[in-house]
Automatic annotation (TrEMBL):
Residues 88-112 are annotated as: Disordered. InterPro entries: NUDIX_hydrolase-like_dom_sf (IPR015797). It comes from Thermocatellispora tengchongensis. It comes from the Bacteria. This is 8-oxo-dGTP pyrophosphatase MutT (NUDIX family).
Amino acid sequence: MIREVIEETGCDAVVERLLGVDSRVIPAAVARAGTEHQNVGIFYRIRITGGRLRPEPDGETAEPVWTAIPDVARLRRSSLVEGWAPTGCVGDASSRDGPGGCRQAGVVISQR
């Protein structure tokens, strides 16, 4: 998991905890390749410990960018994001801290 973060973003990180697993069928009508498929995403709360955000050299990640939480609503995203993206809270109620009980943060989005 950490190897993937480093490869795809250039950032070093530590896994803090599993947030959840999202599984859904992507209909052919909306799938990029035009073929129905199942998408399984495993989401972790991580803490960036160093490094510098950059594209993956010769890889699949074209442009990782920090995206402000209010801007995440306009992106395609997992249903796991729905719980905190509108409020700016990262993680669940047991992990919120900071002003208003939420940890304000950006999200790394890999766009192609």
